[in-house]
Amino acid sequence: MKIIHIASEINPFAKTGGLADVVGSLPASISRLGHKVVMFMPLYKQVSEKYSLEFHSDFPLHTSQGIKTVLIKKKVIDKDTTLYFIGEHSYFFRDVIYGDYVDNAERFSFFCRAVLAFIKKEDLSPQVIHCHDWQSALVPLYARQDRYFEKTCFGYTIHNLAYQGVFPYEKIHQISLDPSFFTPDKLEFYGKINFMKAGVIYSDFINTVSPTYRDETLTSKFGWGLEGLLDTRSKDYYGIVNGLDYTEWDPANDPDIFVKYDSLSLRKKEENRKKIMKKSNLLVRPGKALFVAITRLADQKGMDLLVHAVHKIAASGHSFILLGSGEKRYEDMFLHLEKTYKDKVRCYMKYDFAMAHKLYAAGDFFLMPSKFEPCGLSQLISFRYGNIPIVRKTGGLADTVENISENLSSGDGIVFEDYNTKSIDKAIEKAFEVYKSDSFDAIRKRIMLNDFSWERTAKKYISLYERYSNA
Ligand code: ADP
C-alpha cells in the first residue's frame, strides 16, 4: 500500500510532545512491514535553519489572502519513505511553531490545502491518508470535495482531545470554506469553528492512542464537548497504544547518558544517578532514592499532586529532579520547592532532549500523576531505562502500567486511582518500600524487558488501513 501521514510535528525535525514521537516512528515501522510511506509537515523556520533539505518544487495556491507560493522541500528517509516539507514564508517562518498567533487557522488550513494540491499535482495516488490532531484535521474535509480522492481511505488520530483547534466563526472565510460548513453536523462548535470535528466527521476511521482513553473520551468528563460526536462514530473509533522507538531510547546504546547499561549491568545505572545528582548539587544519601519527572508543566500532568509528592519525598530524605517547561505558575511552585529543599530538589525549567535522556537513566522512580493521559510515552521510556513509573490509573497509563503486586513478584509500576493527595501519598510510601526491598533490582530488570516496540502497533494500524480501504 501507499500511505500518507500528515502532521504538524515529526521527530526529530520539530517536536513539542508525544505527537512528534509517534509520527517520527510509526511511518518507519509501517515501511519496514513492506509499505510505501510519504509524510508531510510544515517547513518551519527552525527546521530550515537546522537541516539541509533538498529543494523539490514550488507552485502557486489560491487562498483568501491572495495567491501564495507553496515551497516544497524534501528528505528521502529511505527507499520507501519520503518526507515533504510544506513551506510558505509568512506562515511558517516564526519564532515558535504554534504560538498564540491570530492566524493559526489560516496557517494550518493552508498547510492542509497545500498538501492535497501537491498530492494531486504529483499524482501520488495513495490508498490511505492518515492525519494527526487538529492541525491536519481539515484534510479529509477538503479532500471529500475533490473527486481525485474518491477512492482514498482517510484515517484520523486524536493524540490529545484537549487541543481541538477552535477558532472564531469569522475565520470560515479565511480557510476557504463557505458558511454552509458552519452547522452543528459539520464544523460549528458552540458558536465557533472546530477543526478537529472535520477529522472526526470526514474520516473513514478514527482512533486515539489507547483503549482506555478512547472509552474515557466518550464521557462528558474527558470528552471536551466532543463526546456526543465521538459516540456517533463509536463503531469506527479505535484505541491503539503507541509504541516506543527502541533505537532512540536504549540505555545500552545512548550517547547522551553518562554510563551505558542494560538489564544485566544495573550497577552502571547507579553511576548515572550519582553523576547527575552531583552535577545538580544534590547530596547522594545511601539508602535514599532519586525520583524524577520530565514533563510539560500543564494542568493535565497533575502538577498539584506532583508538588505534594515532592514535599513527601524530600521530607523523607529522598531526592527529586524535575525537567519541565510550560506554565509560569507551575515553574514558580517548583522553584519554591528547590529553595525549600536545597540539597534534595533540583528543577530544570527548559526543554532539553539530552538532559531528558540523562534523567531517565538516572532515576529510580518516575512520577506521572496525570489527570488524564491519552497514551503517555514517558512511562514506556521509564520502563526501558529501569526507572519504575508511579502513575495514576487513567488513559494509556492504565493500559500500559500494571500495579506491582503486594509481594512484589509481578507488575511494572506503582499505580494509584484517585486524584487526591491521600492516594499519591500511599503510592509514594509504596515506592519507599519497593526501594528498600530485596526485589528492587528484580523489578527494574523485569520492566526493562517489557515490549512496547513499534512493530506491534504498526501492525494494528495496517490492519485498519486494509479493512477500511477495502470497505
Ligand atoms: P505529552 O505528549 O502529553 O507531552 P508524552 O508522555 O506522550 O506527553 O510525551 C512527552 C515526551 O516529551 C517524552 O518523550 C518526554 O521525555 C518529552 N519531554 C517532556 N518534557 C520535556 C522537557 N522539558 N525536556 C525534554 N523532553 C521532554
Topology, pairings included?
Elements: E1 2-6, H1 18-32, E2 36-42, H2 45-50, E3 54-63, E4 66-78, E5 81-87, H3 89-92, H4 104-121, E6 128-132, H5 138-144, E7 153-158, E8 166-168, E9 188-189, E10 192-194, H6 195-202, E11 205-208, H7 211-217, H8 227-232, E12 237-239, H9 266-279, E13 290-297, H10 303-315, E14 319-326, H11 328-340, E15 345-349, H12 353-362, E16 365-368, H13 378-384, E17 388-392, H14 395-400, E18 414-416, H15 421-436, H16 440-448, H17 454-469
Parallel strand pairs: 1-2, 1-6, 2-5, 6-7, 7-11, 11-12, 13-14, 13-16, 14-15, 16-17, 17-18
Antiparallel strand pairs: 3-4, 4-5, 8-10, 9-10
The structure holds adenosine-5'-diphosphate.
Features:
471 residues, alpha/beta, Rossmann fold, 2 domains, 9-stranded mixed β-sheet, 6-stranded parallel β-sheet, 17 helices, 18 strands, 37% helix, 21% strand, globular, binds adenosine-5'-diphosphate, EC 2.4.1.21, Starch_synth_cat_dom, Glyco_trans_1, Glycogen synthase, alpha-1,4-glucan glucosyltransferase (UDP-glucose donor) activity
**Text of the CATH class of the largest domain:** Alpha Beta
Structural class: alpha/beta
Q: How many discrete domains? A: 2
Q: Can you identify the CATH superfamily of the largest domain? A: Glycogen Phosphorylase B
Short summary of the structure?
The chain is α/β, with parallel strands linked by helices and 471 residues long.
Q: Could you describe the 3D structure shown?
A:
By secondary structure, the chain is an alpha/beta fold. The protein folds into two domains: 2-243 and 454-469, 3-Layer(aba) Sandwich (Rossmann fold); 266-448, Glycogen Phosphorylase B (Rossmann fold, 3-Layer(aba) Sandwich), CATH 3.40.50. It is built from 17 helices and 18 strands. The strands form three sheets. Strands 3-4-5-2-1-6-7-11-12 form a nine-stranded mixed β-sheet, with helices on both faces. The chain has a six-stranded parallel β-sheet with strand order 15-14-13-16-17-18, sandwiched between helices. The chain has a three-stranded antiparallel β-sheet with strand order 8-10-9. α1 (18-32) crosses α17 (454-469), α5 packs across α6 (195-202) and α10 runs parallel beside α11. The longest helix has 18 residues, at 104-121. The protein is globular. It binds adenosine-5'-diphosphate (ADP). The site of adenosine-5'-diphosphate has 17 residues, from α1, β13, β14 and α12. It comes from Muiribacterium halophilum. This is Glycogen synthase. Its EC number is 2.4.1.21. GO terms for molecular function: alpha-1,4-glucan glucosyltransferase (ADP-glucose donor) activity; alpha-1,4-glucan glucosyltransferase (UDP-glucose donor) activity. Keywords: Glycogen biosynthesis, Glycosyltransferase, Transferase.
